[in-house]
Each structure stands twice: as C-alpha cells, then as structure tokens.
Design brief:
- With about 280 residues, this protein is mainly α.
- It has one domain: Farnesyl Diphosphate Synthase.
- The chain is built from 13 helices and no strands.
- The longest helix has 28 residues.
- The protein is globular and about 60 Å long.
- The termini are far apart.
- The C terminus is likely disordered.
C-alpha cells in the first residue's frame, strides 16, 4: 500500500495487494514452522497434516482469489497473477536452498542468494505488484522489484538478529546457515572453521554448544564487519528509493522502514553470558 501511495499518493486501491501479502506470509511462516518442527508443531486444533493443507490453501489459491477483487482492474489482473506465481516459485527455491544448505561449504554469497529467494522474492513480488497496479512504467516496476529484493534481505538479517537477542536460538536448533554464521565461517582459519562446524552441528541439541557458537557470532571484529555489510545493503535500498522518488510522505515511510530493518542490534559479548541464556535442552 505504501509503494502504491508513493507512486500515486493514494494507498487505498492497493488494499487487495495487502491481503495477498498477509496471506502469503502467514502461509509461509506456518509451513516453515511445520518443516522445522518435524511434525511437532500444533496450530490451534489442527493436526500437522491439517495445518499443512490449510497453509497451502492460504498461500496459493487465496492470494490469487484476492486478485479477483472488483477493486483490481481487469487489465492488470494477468500481470499481477503472473507476478504472484513467479514470486512464489522464487521464494520456494530460496527456502529449498535454505533447507539443503551445507554448513561446511557456507559463504556469504551463497547465503545472500538464499536470502534473495526466501525473503527477497516475496517483497520484490509485492512491491512490483503495487507498481503494476499504480500504472508505473516497466522501468519503474523493475526498480521497485529491486528495492523489494534488497529490503527482503535486510528484513531477513533483522530476523536473524532477533532470534539471537530473544534467546530462542531457533536458527541454531534448526541447523540454519545464517549470514552471520557464514561470515564467521569464511573469516575463520581452517582449524577454527572445523571447530565451529562441529559446534554448530551439536547446537541442535546442546545448550553448551549453542553458547559456544553464539560466543563466536558475537565476536567484536566479526560484528564490526557484519555492520559494515549491513550498512552497504541499507545504502543500496536508500539509493533505489532516491532514484525512484515519488510522493514525499510515503517515500519517507519506506525510508523509515529501511532504517528500522537495517539496525545493527547485536553487541559484542563482554562476559560469559549468552543472550537469552539456556533453554534447558539436554546436553
């Protein structure tokens, strides 16, 4: 809605697209939880198999049905539907990369490619859809898609930080290869890398291993470089917004969202404490 308003000054016509965005992310988050939970996640009164079916319906046919709203002009429904389908395919590919990631071979480039799929693609999809609905030129649609892609990567990195700060450590429990972990692995000596790979594998069931990995991830020099790379992505997003221009009020909202998503929230460890502490899992 904000992207549409940046183009036209009016967010209202994009309400059906907001529904598409919410439906897709609701589905994606539940499917992700179900995959990570290995059948142990419960959604209300639904069994895991029922929840999976509900999530698929929420994420695929319902967003397309939302585009049948009378508020969406017939002339752009085909383009919007194509954008939804291509965005879903790209996001699924990114999620598959994430699930199949090999820690020992992780590096920055591979993880960013994964992030551009699993998080960048959905935001690129919806920003491009807003621009299409607004009647923007092909060039502007492509630039809005590029902005959504970068913003999605920033959002994923923000989410990675939140997982550490909250003490949930779901990424470690699930064996996820995050960008910060890839930075740590790529900057380590062969011996340090081997130790970190072993600790990461053990962290799925061991709180002491999670503490060991977290201590590495919160190293001062690593976080300094991480912040620099985060700032590069932030500047790229702002550059795209500056090139796009548009309604000043709504453009400022997008700039604020970029700043919020690109905050460096992690701080180096100064003692033996680990954010969130132990969750009581077995050693």
């Amino acid at each position: 809605m904000i992207v549409h308003a940046a183009e036209t000054g009016d967010p209202g016509p994009a309400t059906p697209l907001a529904a598409v965005h919410v439906l897709w992310w609701t589905s994606a988050c539940h499917i992700d939880d179900l995959a990570d939970g290995h059948g142990t996640v419960h959604v209300g009164d639904l069994r895991p198999d029922e929840a999976l079916l509900a999530a698929v319906v929420t994420g695929v046919p319902l967003p397309i049905l939302a585009l049948r709203s009378p508020r969406i002009p017939e002339a752009v429904r085909g383009a919007l539907t194509a954008e939804v389908v291509s965005g879903m395919v790209a996001a699924a590919e990114g999620q598959l990369r994430d699930l199949r990631a090999v820690v020992a071979g992780a590096d920055r480039e591979r993880v960013i490619t994964t992030y551009r799929g699993k998080s960048g693609a959905p935001f690129a999809m919806i920003t491009a859809m807003a621009a299409i609905l607004a009647g923007a030129s092909t060039e502007r649609i492509d630039r809005w898609r590029a902005f959504g892609d970068v913003f999605g990567v920033l959002w994923q990195i923000f989410n990675d930080q939140e997982d550490i700060l909250s003490g949930r450590h779901e990424d470690l429990a699930n064996g996820t290869v995050t960008y910060l972990l890839a930075c740590a692995l790529q900057d380590s000596s062969p011996a340090q890398r081997a130790r970190l790979v072993r600790a990461h594998a053990a962290a799925q069931t061991s709180s002491s291993a999670r503490a060991e990995v977290t201590a590495v991830l919160l190293g001062a020099s690593l976080l300094q470089r991480y912040e620099e790379e985060l700032a590069f992505l932030r500047d790229e997003a702002h550059k795209l917004l500056c090139e796009l221009g548009g309604d000043g009020e709504y453009l400022a909202m997008l700039q604020h969202m970029v700043e919020a998503a690109s905050q460096m929230r992690l701080e180096p460890m100064t003692n033996n404490s680990v954010p969130g502490g132990s969750d009581g899992r077995n050693e």
